[in-house]
Every structure is written in structure tokens, then in C-alpha cells.
From TrEMBL:
The keyword Repeat applies. It comes from the Eukaryota. Coiled coil: none annotated. The lineage of its organism: Eukaryota, Metazoa, Chordata, Craniata, Vertebrata. The keyword Transmembrane helix does not apply. Keywords: Repeat. Residues 692-836 form the VPS9 domain. This is Alsin Rho guanine nucleotide exchange factor ALS2.
Length: 836
């Protein structure tokens, strides 16, 4: 990376020097004949989309393209980092490398802006005097033609023009050139030709400046005593950007307001005991850390999250130690007055345990769940960081204990121990799990009983865990506060939209000096999000689609409150269910959490769009749908009524799952795969065994009627006869279609793939029969079973269960619901198929 940085810096220096001297304009003239013939190719290489762009601008863009692509490199590294766990060294290295590339891109972008500003100056003021000053490495900092600057005691008719370069100050009236390199060297060494304040026989302290930029050492203010401030002033107080340094080494650099740190700033505090420093970067309000920020402690801990009155308050992530340290851990959750409180997730990397539950005064207190790297699962009550009270403990081999605990993994009191085979013991238990347990009780063997009333009830997990709606309340509360609501749903809509516009405009202004951070399309997206959508008249499908498009753009933009909310929810979800959290017993908790996200985000959306109907409402169609459609049953036109398409019934999942689920899909699908691992192994073994047969043999084995067997196949436009040795050729289009189910994310998209597969089957049979027909389930099921087998979908069980858990309820009884039930039946049928 260091070699790349050095190369990019040298390359940027050469190109910007070339730009300042008008090199691209000179280069374009002799090359115009040759390059104009290849201007389309040149535009493609330079990624210039606008027509009639001048050749000089195309060359300029082309030569700066390697620097612009540094942002892309940073994004690629960031995406690669998501392939690793957040606690892994690979993740940290990729994150650091991405930040380095991003910083380099910003630095070189500013260099380019300085060069363009200087070139514009040379073009605006041509002449012998300016030509004599023009040097490749010289950059214009400021000039007085557009700044209010005048010479004191100047004559009435004199015209004074001051030009400040990075290496010289020019007074144009006298054509006086004064090199200031010596003054710069003195400043860097801390020397000055001017006598210091207070020198002489008597000490005369100056008063703080009234305005402008100046340097001043405080001697009255107890908070700032002996501190030196260098920056902008207003009415005798620091106001604007500046740097404040204390004699003990503390330093603040950032924005001030009425003499106090206010806005975005950086704060450093030396720690002499550790020979390091505390470092804070983030927002301030009235002299205190307030808002979002990152605090890096000298001890090695790093906190990213919300602050209030110099304390951690709100949602935040605390990293303690590194993977190589003695006690690495991570906590993400709610903080109150510098202490963990409310719901949070603690990942103890040393012990290989993850706690997901309630906190109070920095300790685990209340209901919670613990999973370990050895497959243990506990849910129940905690008191002062200990498992205490009622709880449920499950081991990897499905042994279950329900009862009382007195300490971590320590059974103490009345309970029930259930074996993997269903036998169970009721009685009193004492001892630590895995180290020998003393039992006084009764042993039961349910298989000996004839009636089911004596059998133990099936255990349902989650009753002692924190309810999904109680999780991450601080994250949602913060979003509501950004919209101007003290409590969820209590506020004025117009004020919320004003707050959104202000937040977006403020963030865009912060990026104004770094145009490469936001591309033109991103800037246009932010501008469109500042516009408040207006809906007049009855609510329609078109207005619903407009809201959906707005939400997609808003949730893809972290600068928008909804986008920031989604980004935070994705982070906490991955933190919870990745690594040790990838435990199959957490699947239902993970599904409940997604449903809770959808419900609470939908509440936010309905607040912003009051005209949006409530959950389950049907949107009236502005125009009737076409009465004829292709039926999957006959392949011919069919005028029968169809269940509503997704989007015509208002649901939180239909509106928000396309935005949320692709981001949460990897950890969620991993849980499904772990939970269905055993039955999917049986299914996959049957798939591999049955797929050894040829097409005709498999069709016959599955009981497909001969009239549905393809006789000929079209291969590269030629019709070829289906032979007894033909394999993987029949119903190939339907097989390829069904395989796409693994490339989709949302249940609605997966259901559309299933529906398209049925239609492909019908089209293939229609082409073979050359006549109308009507499917019966007895005829259709074996054909579809053949397609499912040939599709060879490795985690079909996980796909089926994901659709079942997250699909919209109103789809279950429609055509797509019937098709999904057929796919589910095929999955279970395959596990029972036996070859003769």
C-alpha cells in the first residue's frame, strides 16, 4: 500500500503541475486530428457520458481517472472485509486499508482542486506580470480582487492587488515579489522575527480579538487558562474553525460557537501513565461531546456511538482489546450515563461466549440468552452477571435442562432433565454442567406409556429471551428524535420532513470540499430526497410505487435518517448472529427480530406518509388489470380471477423486505442451513442417488405419464430425438428457471421463480402435445418433482423454510401459495424416495 501511495502522490503531482501550466490545452491542439477520429473510444476510456465534450476536458478527465478510481478500490476492500468476521485480523486490515485509500483519494482530490483553481486564475488574468509568476509547482491560495483587502494609508487613486501563493506574496501595484519560505521555516521551527506578547520591561496582556482569524493565549477564563487558541473569532470569542491547545498537551481542533466547542471536532488527551493518548473524533455541543463520535482510549478500547454531556449515552459499540490481547471483547447496545443499560449483545471472544440480553448499571440483569462455541444454549434470568433463577439449558446433542440456576452453568434446585431419546428425569439438581451433577428425582420413559398425556411437552424456545420488540429500542428512538419526535409517532409530519431536509443539506455541505466522495448520481439522489413527496387525491398503486422508490433511495443513503437506521440495524444483526452467534437454536429469534424491524420501520414510514394505508389494506386500482393472462395450468389464455399481486396489498414486508433482507441474508440463511442440516443431508443424498439415472428412466421411476415425456428436444436450433441415454436435457428450461431461486433474496422474488418454473413446464408440455390440456395435481406433481431433482438445489430445505417464515400471509392461499406448497411437498417426498 505504501508503494501505491507513493506512486499515486508522485503521479498526482506531475499531472497537477501539467494542468497548472495549461498542458492539456497545449496537448489537445497537435493531437486534435488523430484524437477526433477516435473520440468515441476516448470518451469510453475517460467515462465521460456527456456529448459535445471538448477534447481538452476529455484528456483532463482521462489522466485523472486513476486517482478517481481510488474510491472504487476503497469500496472493494470494504466489501472484501464483509467476508470476514468483524473481530478477525483480516477484517481489521481490510478496513484500515480501505480507510487509507479513501484518505488518499480525498487528499489528491484537494490537490486537483487547488491546481484547477490556480489554472483558472492564470486564464482570468493573462499578461507579462502573471506569466513571470507562473511555475508548475506554484498554487494560488487567495487574491484580493474578490476579497475585501485594502492597504492602510494608501493614496486615494492607488490600486493595490495582493496575490498569495503557497510560496510567495505579491503586491501588484509595485510589482513587488517577496518570498516567504524563510518565514514558513521559522514558523515550523517555532521561531518568529516578532517579539513575543508581553516582552519588554512591563507585561501588557492583550484582550481577545473581536473578529477575524487570530492567535491568543487565555489567562482569565478558568476553563481555558493558559490555553492558546488559533482560529476564527466573533465578538471576542472563538467562533468558527480553530485549534485550541493546553499546556499539558490537550488539543482540540474543530468548530467553535460562542467560545465553546460546538459542531464537528477532534480532541486529544495525553495519558502519561500509558505513554499514549485518548482520542475523540465526533460531534460537540456547548463545549461537551454530544452526538455521534468515535473515542479511542489510551488503554486500547474504542467506542463508536452516541455521546451526551461527555458520557456514552444512547446506542454504541465498544471494542475492548484486540484478538491478540489477553481479554478481547465487543459490546454493542444501549448506554445510559456511561453505563451499559437496556438491551445489548456482548461477545466475549476469550471465553467463546456471546450474551444477548438486558443490562443494568454495567452488568447483565434480567432476561437473556447465552450461546457458546461448543454449542451450548442458555436462556433465562440473570442477576449481577450470573445465571440465576429459572432458565433453559440445551447442549449440542439436544439434552435439555429446564429449571433453577444459582450461577453460570450451575444447576441448583427443582428442574427437569430431558435426554435426546425423549427420556426425562424430574427432581432436584445440583452441580456445574459438564462437571458432574447430583440428582434426586424420578426417571420417566415416555415410550412405555400408551397415551400422549403422560409425555412431556415439546420445548418452545424464546419464552425467557428478550422480546424482539424490546431489542434495539435506542436505535429506533434515535431515529425518531432525528425526525423531531420525543416518542414514537408523536410529532408533526411537516417538522419531520424539515429535519430530514436539514440533515441532508448539512451533510452535503460537509462534503462540499470533497466532491469525489459524492458522485453526480449520489448528489442528485440527495437532492431528490430533500424534496418532500406530495400526494393529492385518493391513494393509488402509482403513489405506493412512488413511496417505495423513495424508500429504496433513502435506505441506500446513510446521510438520510432512514438510511442510517437501516445501516445500524444491519450492523447489530450481523454482530448478533455471526461467529459464535451462528447457532441453529437462534434461528427463530433471528426471524422474529427481522419481523420486528419491519413492523417498527413501517411505523416510521406511515408517520412520514400518513396517506399510506395500514397493514393489510388493499389499494384500489386506478385502472382494471387485463382480464386475460397465461395460465400455468394450460399455457393458454385464462380469464379466471387471480389473487392480488404483491404490492397491491399494503404490508410492511412487501414494502421493506426488498430493502432490508438482501443486507441481512448471509447470517440469516446460515442459521437456516445450520437448523436444517440433518434433514438436508438426507435430501441431498437422495438427490445425488436419483440423478444418476437417465431422463427417461427417472421420468418412469417418478411415475410421470408417458404423454408428458418429451419426444424431441431443440438443441442449438436443431430438433433431436430423446434417447434412452439422454440425461439432463428434458424440461431443461424449467430446471434452469428453478435454479434461480438461490440467487434471489425476498420470499416474493422466490415465489415468482417458482411460478415461472411451473409456466416453463406447461409451455414444454404444450409444445409436445400440440393441444390444450388441463393439469391435475396427480399429473403435475411427478413432473415438478423431476424438475426439482434435476435442479440440484443444495439448500432447498433452507429456501423452503425461509419462504414459509417470511412470506406475506395473503399469498398463502393464492396461486403462488399453492405452487409453494407443491415445492415443499417435493422436498419432503425426495427424502422418502427409494430406488427399486
Amino acid at each position: 500500500i505504501s508503494v501505491c501511495f507513493l506512486f499515486c502522490s508522485r503521479y498526482c503531482t506531475s499531472i497537477t503541475n501539467f494542468l497548472v501550466m495549461g498542458g492539456f490545452q497545449l496537448l489537445a491542439k497537435p493531437a486534435i486530428d488523430f484524437l477526433n477520429k477516435n473520440q468515441e473510444l476516448l470518451q469510453d476510456l475517460s467515462e465521460v457520458d456527456e456529448e459535445n465534450t471538448q477534447l481538452m476536458e476529455i484528456l483532463n478527465t482521462l489522466f485523472f481517472l486513476p486517482i478517481r478510481r481510488l474510491h472504487s478500490y476503497a469500496k472493494v476492500l470494504l466489501k472484501l472485509a464483509t467476508c470476514f468476521e468483524v473481530t478477525s485480523p483480516e477484517y481489521q486490515k481490510l478496513q484500515d486499508s480501505s480507510s487509507c485509500y479513501e484518505s488518499l483519494a480525498l487528499h489528491l482530490g484537494r490537490k486537483r482542486k487547488e491546481a484547477e483553481y490556480t489554472l483558472s486564475f492564470w486564464k482570468t488574468f493573462p499578461g507579462k506580470m502573471t506569466d513571470s509568476l507562473r511555475k508548475p509547482e506554484r498554487r494560488l491560495l487567495c487574491e484580493s480582487s474578490n476579497r475585501a483587502l485594502s492597504l492602510q494609508h494608501a493614496g486615494r487613486f492607488s490600486v493595490n492587488w495582493f496575490i498569495l501563493f503557497n510560496d510567495a506574496l505579491v503586491h501588484a501595484q509595485t510589482k513587488w515579489l517577496r518570498a516567504i519560505s524563510q518565514a514558513v521555516d521559522q514558523a515550523l521551527r517555532g521561531m518568529s522575527d516578532l517579539p513575543p506578547y508581553g516582552s519588554g520591561s512591563s507585561i501588557q496582556r492583550q484582550e481577545p480579538p473581536i473578529s477575524r482569524s487570530a492567535k491568543y493565549t487565555f489567562y482569565k477564563d478558568p476553563r481555558l487558562k493558559d490555553a492558546t487558541y488559533d482560529g476564527r473569532w466573533l465578538s471576542g470569542k472563538p467562533h468558527g474553525r480553530g485549534v485550541l491547545k493546553w499546556p499539558d498537551g490537550k488539543m482540540y481542533s474543530g468548530m467553535f460557537r460562542n467560545g465553546l466547542e460546538d459542531g464537528y471536532g477532534e480532541y486529544r488527551i495525553p495519558n502519561k501513565a500509558l505513554n499514549k493518548e485518548d482520542h475523540y473524533v465526533g460531534h460537540w455541543k456547548e463545549g461537551k461531546m454530544c452526538g455521534q463520535g468515535v473515542y479511542s482510549y489510551a488503554s486500547g478500547e474504542v467506542f463508536e456511538g452516541c455521546f451526551q454531556d461527555n458520557m456514552r449515552h444512547g446506542h454504541g459499540l465498544l471494542r475492548s482489546g484486540k484478538l491478540t490481547s489477553s481479554s478481547p471483547s465487543m459490546f454493542i447496545g444501549q448506554w445510559v450515563m456511561d453505563k451499559k443499560a437496556g438491551y445489548g449483545v456482548f461477545d466475549d471472544i476469550t471465553r467463546g461466549e456471546k450474551y444477548m440480553g438486558l443490562w443494568q448499571d454495567d452488568v447483565c440483569q434480567g432476561n437473556g440468552v447465552v450461546v457458546t462455541q461448543f454449542g451450548l444454549y442458555y436462556e433465562g434470568n440473570f442477576h449481577l452477571n450470573k445465571m440465576m433463577g429459572n432458565g433453559v439449558l440445551l447442549s449440542e446433542d439436544d439434552t435439555i435442562y429446564e429449571g433453577e440456576f444459582s450461577d453460570d452453568w450451575t444447576l441448583s434446585g427443582k428442574g427437569t432433565l430431558t435426554m435426546p431419546n425423549g427420556d426425562y428425569i424430574e427432581g432436584y439438581f445440583s452441580g456445574e454442567w459438564g462437571s458432574g451433577i447430583k440428582i434426586t428425582g424420578t426417571y420417566f420413559k415416555p415410550s412405555l406409556y400408551e397415551s400422549d398425556k403422560d409425555r412431556p411437552k415439546v420445548l418452545k424456545l424464546g419464552n425467557l429471551a428478550v422480546p424482539a420488540d424490546e431489542k434495539w429500542k435506542a436505535v429506533f428512538d434515535e431515529c425518531w428524535h432525528q425526525l423531531g419526535c420525543e416518542n414514537p409517532g408523536q410529532g408533526e409530519v411537516w417538522k419531520a420532513w424539515d429535519n430530514i431536509a436539514v440533515a441532508l443539506t448539512t451533510n452535503r455541505r460537509q462534503h462540499r470540499d470533497s466532491p469525489e466522495i459524492l458522485s453526480r448520481s449520489q448528489t442528485q439522489t440527495l437532492e431528490s430526497l430533500e424534496f418532500i413527496p406530495q400526494h393529492v387525491g385518493a391513494f393509488s398503486v402509482e403513489k405506493y410505487d412512488d413511496i417505495k422508490k423513495y424508500l429504496i433511495k433513502a435506505c441506500d443513503t446513510p446521510l438520510h435518517p432512514l438510511g442510517r437506521l437501516v445501516e445500524t440495524l444491519v450492523a447489530v444483526y450481523r454482530m448478533t448472529y455471526v461467529g459464535v452467534g451462528a447457532n441453529r437454536r437462534l434461528l427463530q429469534e433471528a426471524v422474529k427480530e427481522i419481523k420486528s424491524y419491519l413492523k417498527r420501520i413501517f411505523q416510521l414510514v406511515r408517520f412520514l406518509f400518513p396517506e399510506l394505508p395500514e397493514e393489510g389494506s388493499t389499494i384500489p386500482l386506478s385502472a382494471p388489470l387485463p382480464t386475460e393472462r397465461k395460465s400455468f395450468c394450460t399455457g393458454k389464455s385464462d380469464s379466471r380471477s387471480e389473487s392480488p399481486e404483491p404490492g397491491y396489498v399494503v404490508t410492511g414486508s412487501g414494502l421493506l423486505l426488498p430493502v432490508l433482507l438482501p443486507r441481512l441474508y448471509p447470517p440469516l440463511f446460515m442459521l437456516y442451513a445450520l437448523d436444517n442440516d440433518r434433514e438436508e443431508d438426507v435430501y441431498w443424498e437422495c438427490v445425488l442417488r436419483l440423478n444418476k439415472q437417465t431422463d427417461l428412466a427417472l421420468l418412469g421411476f417418478l411415475g410421470v405419464q408417458r404423454k408428458f415425456w418429451p419426444v424431441t428436444l431443440s438443441v442449438l436450433g436443431e430438433n433431436k430425438k430423446v434417447l434412452p441415454t439422454t440425461k439432463d436435457a428434458c424440461f431443461a428450461s424449467a430446471v434452469e428457471c428453478l435454479q434461480q431461486i438461490s440467487t434471489t433474496f425476498t420470499p416474493s422474488d422466490k415465489l415468482k421463480v417458482i411460478q415461472q418454473t411451473f409456466e416453463e413446464i406447461s409451455q414444454s408440455v404444450l409444445a409436445s402435445l400440440q393441444e390444450d390440456f388441463l393439469w391435475s395435481m396427480d399429473d403435475l406433481f411427478p413432473v415438478f418433482l423431476y424438475v426439482v431433482l434435476r435442479a440440484r438445489i443444495r439448500n432447498l430445505g433452507s429456501e423452503v423454510h425461509l419462504i414459509e417464515d417470511l412470506m406475506d400471509p395473503y399469498l398463502q392461499h393464492g396461486e403462488q401459495g399453492i405452487m409453494f406448497t407443491t415445492l415443499k411437498a417435493c422436498y419432503y417426498q425426495i427424502q422418502r424416495e427409494k430406488l427399486n
